[in-house]
Amino acid sequence: MWIVAAYTFLYALTVVATGALCVVSQLPAPVRSTRSYRWNAVIAATLITEFPQIFLGLKFLILYFASAAGVLDPATGLSGVQWLYRLDIAVFLIIWGLFLQSYFARFVVEEQTKMYRAVDSHDPPGFFHLGYWFRLLNPFWSARNVMVHPDICYATDAELKHAGPAAEPYMSLDVHIHPSYPRNRPILIYVHGGSWSSGDKTVTPPFISYMALKRWVVVSVNYRLSPDAKYPDHLIDLKRAIRWVRQHAVRYGGDPSFIAVAGNAAGGHLAAMAAMTANDPYYQPGFESVNTEVQACVGMNAVLDVTNHKKYWRHKFQEWFATNVAGVEGGFANNEEAMHVASPVVLLKRMEAERRKSIKTAAVGGPDVVPTPAAVETELQKDAEIKVSAAGTSGPRPVTGLEQLPPFLLFHGRADMLVPFRSARDFVQSFKKISKSPICYVEFPNANHMYEILSAPRAHYMAYGIDRFLSRMYERHVAANGGAKVESK
After folding, report:
1. End-to-end Cα separation, the chain, in angstroms
2. pTM exceeds 0.85
3. Does residue 190 sit in the same domain as residue 84?
4. Exposure letters 335-371 (e unless 16+ CB within 10 A, then b)
5. β partners of residue 246
6. What confidence tens digit (pLDDT) does each residue in 430-484 have?
7. Which stretches make up the BD-FAE-like domain (predicted)?
8. Is residue 118, in this structure, part of any structural domain at all?
9. Are residues 419 and 286 part of one domain?
10. Tally of structural domains, the chain
11. Which residues have C-beta within 8 Å of that of residue 37, sequence separation ≥ 6?
């Protein structure tokens, strides 16, 4: 009898545990929750929402052993076990629903990126594709036939000497290429997340392998981390990596005329800032004349607002960023301007304000007269010259409204507990108002913060979306630069 009781206890424990994971995955983090609680809740929620196929397999095994041990037999089982069995069936159906929802992310990606379908892009694998299932059963999947050139230092000797000998591992990168050594291929730089204070270039999402197999030259970058590094040191390191890529990627088959930058979470913030502050001398100390412009940007659960100006964060994230990442004294309140210029969405709103101001100034004939684009451009040029000359190099280059932004592709989970998805929506709306460059936003229902890290359905479908968007941007780039044929092998 005690054997049946022991098996019943274990069976009840698995039912309650999986049920609790299902509940946690659907609830937002409490307003007064600690940072450690939010991280633990994200990890727990990600396990059940991104790997339901593994939990379904475990459910079948547990149910088999429980039945074989007589736990579910009314004659030998304990009283009340039938209610436990009904609860288990309910949890099983919920997990099955989570699996279907993760699989249907395929159609979300296809719908949002259908207008960017490139000539050589392929459809994502179907439900009965055997290779797709092998990838899903291994959460740490990565392609074996991708060649990696590891631990290449992108900093100069003088920069390493200034940063200290311990900084070299953090100022390094890995180059992922197809073993066929393709030539003249586009470049994708990946910036890892980790709250600006953790993470490593070796933890690569599935899309790194996928893009390398598509014969992209993929560069995974490390950067110095907080609290030792203070923002904008992280961004400066990324621009140093862009400098290295532009100067040395040719030997790995890269086309330095097309560089896309991608990042998740904190890495997405750095990628967006790099795309929006190209060639700003303040972020390029010692290499001001180097071209750090990028041709596309991809953000996954990216932090696009560090000021919390619309109160989307349920806690005082702006204070945490100012104190722990930027390391400024007095917190956010005494350093608002420094935090504003570190926030991509605030930069967009300032660009919009500058354009509106120039339109109003150019309307010489009265408020009802619509100024010509040439007149608006002239006013923007005048204001830009005044602002740049007055600012000097003591701070970031002031926003002028003349900035040319690259195409953006953003992914975000609607159930993200760490980075509110509404901040991504705010960025997209502001971007469309001030830029003619393409922007594509893909929002995954019920996806949490780390859906793209491991080998899960959404991560693989996201990889297809990235390939579709960036390949189309590269096609346009090639066409705009003479239409030279790009090697595919």
Report:
1. 67
2. yes
3. no
4. beebbbbbbbbbbbbbbbebbeebbebbbeeeeeeeb
5. none
6. 999 999 999 999 999 989 999 999 899 999 999 999 999 999 999 999 999 876 5
7. 173-349
8. no
9. yes
10. 2
11. 29, 30
